[in-house]
């Protein structure tokens, strides 16, 4: 009883943290309850082999069962999970299923596994609970962090307290049906690390290339069985047992319900017929299962008549195995119909079933009827004879699902396009996707409106209701349409005639659509959806739509946080503080509340800051771009981000005395990242965050920086007497000593190809070294103060330096000549960078400004960029992207377009943190961070609010009485 109470307590704590789990993913879930397990006397050798592996303490960490579609992998998985559960050796199970929402994605994979572990393995439940308590937002973190905190660390803690820990097994089925290849690879790599904590992993999948490659990367950590290559006598025996058992059951059930003269013979259908069916099936168990379901379906008629129809499709070619599986079921629907009736059935089938097989996630019959704009009766009639290929629940509110993915493969097979005579059931994916997209737009147009969940009435201008309440306001087909209309546009090959229709929809309902996504907790998806739209619609194809999407993306990226947490601010704050030239502001200006009688003065256009990466809890000390500019690494603890969506890929937390990161560097292929902190250098994989190497440098080192020399990671260290050491990290050996400086070296930089090293010293000189030989190639003299920062151009032909005299100098590396000097900053210069094409030089000063200069003329083309204290953090590092269009800093990203840019703060009754204008203490209007005053620099007089910004600007706005 005490154990049960503890488990209940843990379950409740998980629920209280809103812990995200995937319903229907476990082997014994409601969604899986009617799916079969292996019959007695089938798969005997295979099941014994898996059992031996699971109970062998010295076995490999992973057992990989692969097999082509329809060979029975999922049935084996369910059998193994059931067997392990009966002996308390099952840790958790996850059955992936493409097209089933989160069951087809990895985002909640480890959280679902962890939730099951708390129930199945109480000994480690408390450790998982503690992990959730320590980080209640763990469910939204990257897969690596979820794995470490929810799986690896709790299992390690549990095994430390148990001298003889019991081996527990995870069962993961159909890994190939996980959507993203990157996630599949990462899951395999992470799971290969579980052996030392008493965990085993049983995995099934099709033999897809990404999975085969991923397993080859962990060679020696798994054992492997190919299901469709089992000896044919074994497969023959198992299929024969399966078919005999099911046909006997069909015969008994049929004979119970008909008169004696109609009953099947007691030996029906005879051994020779069973042998023929086995021959037709080998090696596909899905053939046998589908045929048996077809024969058992009383709506299809007499089992013997149906069986004769099946035998007419006898074939030996593997290509037509699926034809023999599914054509008997489908052809039954048009048997005996006139040409007109036949065409009507085919048309309905393509529209209804074509939609079912192409949906991004399954819908119920009632939701499908609303989405497709037809009656439930029409759908029910068409599905009545398809129970052998579709899972059709008795409730109209439960989703209709494919019984097997091969049915979809069969229907959309492009080779059947030219064989419509033999297979009239072929579905044209492009046309079907186009119809679904049209229906999505129709459903959204009919339903979407402002404040669709009545938040204003609930006095929730500054917050959001929970998902369950939102679902009661926003019907399932509307939620589906909001999330997937662009997915279907993509599938429809983006016909040009759709552009006008899409533009009209966005002009009317863009804000409503964003509000709906926020209410169902999917606001970040809007960025991906708009980027997909931008890729589909070329600028020349529909200029107005293209410009609208550009503006929409900037608006969402700038305000994603408040959109996600207070959706009604879309119609007030976000419109009020959008730039004057914003297309969306102009289009939806009428939505601004009437109580705002005079708007504040805002910027004319969008600023150069295009994206901010939020998530650090302490100042960001350093950042770096990967060579293809697709990944940014930032150092506070350590985070790695995608530049397209702003998503944090993985996070690493440093522990110990010195957490400060001095330098970050990517390998040439962006697969590795190195970081130095204190006298330690660590090397990680960018896709998993796994630390693969660590090196400690000598105690007398003053400064450490890192770079990749070809495929070798090289560390440069400096001592107080000006000596520079180059270290090879694999061995930890010092491979070069560079001597010549007479004082402390303040900065070290590697050239782009890592063949040159530049060093800047307090002795007021810059030296250029050969990284391979250690020779000093050249000494640059000229600064009259110590040099504080240096940077190479991409071609290594130029070096930029910043010195204590507040001057930036540009040097030729070949001659040592100073070819340009830039002087404009009022404060000391902290960092310099050169663009990829060497045309621009960027400088960061402690006077809170960033400037960008033309290298050829010395002109300052972007100046007075007051960004040094955004989010309360100072800019401490920066770099130019390879195209020269963006300057990435540790607090944000700026464009390098000509002109002046100022981050400014603005702000009305204010909340304590000045982030909201309040009415009678109630938050009503959110202020973007750059518009917030400090508490002592704002004033309110009657209906006028004025605020003083740290940049020196003042803004004001006039508000009427708030209509509550």
UniProtKB/TrEMBL annotation:
Gene3D superfamilies: P-loop containing nucleotide triphosphate hydrolases, YVTN repeat-like/Quinoprotein amine dehydrogenase
Superkingdom to which the source organism belongs: Eukaryota
Positions of WD repeats: 654-694, 738-779, 780-821, 822-858
Entry keywords, A to Z: Repeat, WD repeat
UniProt KW GTP-binding keyword: no
Domain named Nephrocystin 3-like N-terminal: residues: 49-206
Key word Cell membrane present: no
Protein's UniProt name: Nephrocystin 3-like N-terminal domain-containing protein
Lineage: Eukaryota, Fungi, Dikarya, Ascomycota, Pezizomycotina
């Amino acid at each position: 009883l005490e154990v049960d109470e503890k488990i209940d307590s843990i379950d409740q704590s998980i629920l209280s943290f809103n812990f995200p789990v995937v319903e229907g993913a476990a082997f014994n879930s409601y969604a899986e309850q009617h799916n079969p397990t292996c019959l007695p006397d089938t798969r005997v050798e295979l099941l014994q082999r898996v059992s031996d592996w699971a109970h062998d303490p010295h076995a490999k960490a992973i057992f990989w069962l692969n097999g082509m579609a329809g060979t029975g992998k999922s049935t084996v998985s369910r059998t193994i999970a059931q067997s392990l559960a009966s002996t308390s050796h099952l840790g958790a199970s996850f059955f992936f299923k493409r097209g089933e929402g989160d069951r087809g994605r990895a985002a909640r994979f480890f959280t679902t596994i962890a939730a099951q572990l708390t129930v199945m393995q109480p000994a480690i439940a408390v450790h998982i609970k503690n992990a959730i308590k320590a980080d209640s937002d763990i469910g939204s973190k990257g897969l690596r962090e979820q794995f470490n905190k929810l799986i690896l660390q709790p299992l390690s803690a549990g095994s430390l307290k148990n001298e003889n820990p019991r081996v527990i097994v995870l069962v993961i089925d159909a890994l190939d049906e996980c959507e993203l290849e990157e996630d599949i690879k990462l899951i395999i790599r992470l799971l290969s690390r579980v052996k030392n904590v008493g965990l085993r992993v049983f995995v099934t999948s099709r033999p897809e290339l990404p999975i085969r490659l991923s397993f080859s990367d962990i060679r020696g950590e798994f054992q492997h069985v190919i299901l469709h290559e089992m000896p044919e006598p074994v497969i023959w025996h198992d299929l024969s047992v399966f078919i005999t058992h099911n046909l006997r059951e069909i015969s008994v059930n049929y004979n119970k319900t008909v008169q004696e003269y109609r009953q099947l013979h007691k030996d029906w259908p005879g051994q020779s017929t069973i042998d023929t069916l086995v021959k037709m099936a080998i090696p596909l168990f899905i053939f046998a299962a589908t045929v048996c379901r077809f024969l058992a379906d009383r709506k299809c008629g007499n089992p013997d008549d149906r069986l004769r129809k099946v035998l007419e499709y006898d074939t030996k070619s593997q290509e037509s195995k699926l034809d023999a599986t599914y054509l008997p079921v489908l052809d039954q629907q048009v048997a005996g119909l006139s040409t007109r009736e036949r065409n009507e059935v085919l048309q309905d089938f393509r529209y209804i079933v074509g939609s079912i097989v192409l949906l991004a996630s399954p819908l119920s019959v009632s939701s499908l009827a609303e989405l497709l704009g037809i009656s439930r009766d029409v759908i029910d009639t068409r599905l009545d004879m398809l129970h052998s290929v579709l899972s059709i629940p008795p409730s109209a509110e439960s989703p209709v699902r494919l019984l097997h993915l091969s049915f979809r493969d069969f229907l959309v097979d492009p080779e059947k396009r030219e064989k419509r005579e033999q297979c009239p059931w072929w579905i044209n994916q492009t046309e079907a996707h186009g119809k679904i997209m049209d229906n999505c737009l129709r459903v959204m147009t009919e339903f979407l409106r402002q404040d669709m969940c009545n938040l204003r009435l609930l006095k929730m201008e500054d917050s959001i209701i929970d998902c369950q309440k939102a679902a009661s306001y926003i019907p399932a087909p509307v939620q589906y349409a909001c999330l997937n209309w662009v997915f279907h546009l993509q599938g429809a090959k983006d016909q040009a005639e759709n552009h006008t229709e899409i533009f009209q929809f966005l002009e009317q309902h863009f804000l409503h659509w964003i509000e709906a996504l926020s209410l169902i907790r999917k606001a970040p998806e809007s960025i991906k959806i708009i980027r997909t739209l931008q890729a589909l619609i070329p600028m020349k194809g529909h200029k107005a739509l293209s410009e609208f999407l550009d503006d929409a993306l900037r608006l969402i990226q700038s305000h994603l946080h408040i959109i996600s947490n207070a959706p009604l601010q879309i119609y007030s704050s976000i419109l009020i503080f959008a730039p004057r030239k914003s297309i969306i502001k102009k289009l939806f200006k009428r939505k601004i509340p009437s109580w705002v009688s005079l708007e504040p003065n805002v910027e004319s256009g969008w600023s150069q800051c295009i994206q901010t990466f939020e998530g650090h809890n302490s100042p960001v000390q350093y950042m770096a771009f990967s060579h293809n500019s697709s990944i940014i690494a930032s150092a506070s603890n350590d985070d790695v981000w995608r530049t397209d969506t702003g998503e944090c890929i993985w996070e690493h937390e440093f522990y110990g005395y010195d957490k400060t990161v001095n330098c970050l560097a990517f390998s040439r292929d962006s697969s590795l990242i190195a970081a130095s902190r204190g006298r330690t250098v660590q090397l990680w994989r960018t896709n998993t965050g796994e630390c693969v190497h660590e090196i400690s440098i000598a105690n007398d080192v003053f400064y450490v920086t890192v770079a990749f020399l070809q495929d070798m990671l090289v560390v440069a260290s400096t001592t107080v007497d000006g000596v520079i050491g180059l270290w090879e990290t694999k061995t930890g050996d010092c491979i070069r000593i560079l001597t010549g400086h007479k004082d402390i070296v303040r900065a070290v930089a590697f050239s782009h190809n890592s063949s040159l090293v530049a060093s800047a010293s307090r002795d007021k000189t810059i030296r250029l070294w050969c990284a391979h030989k250690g020779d000093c190639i050249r000494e640059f003299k000229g600064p009259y103060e110590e040099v504080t920062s240096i940077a190479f151009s991409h071609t290594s032909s130029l070096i930029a330096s910043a010195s204590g005299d507040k001057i930036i100098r540009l040097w030729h590396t070949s001659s040592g000549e100073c070819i340009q000097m830039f002087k404009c900053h009022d404060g000391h210069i902290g960092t310099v960078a050169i663009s990829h094409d060497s045309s621009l030089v960027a400088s960061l000063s402690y006077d809170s400004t960033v400037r960008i200069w033309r290298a050829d003329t010395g002109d300052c083309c972007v100046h007075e960029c007051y960004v040094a204290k955004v989010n309360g953090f100072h800019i401490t590092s920066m770099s130019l992207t390879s195209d020269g269009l963006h300057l990435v800093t540790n607090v944000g990203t700026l464009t390098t377009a000509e002109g002046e840019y100022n981050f400014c703060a603005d702000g009305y009754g204010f909340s304590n943190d000045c982030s909201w204008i309040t009415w009678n203490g109630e938050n009503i209007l959110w202020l973007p961070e750059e518009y917030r005053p400090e508490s002592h620099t704002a004033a309110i007089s009657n209906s006028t609010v004025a605020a003083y910004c740290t940049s020196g600007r003042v803004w004001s706005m006039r508000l009427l009485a708030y209509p509550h």
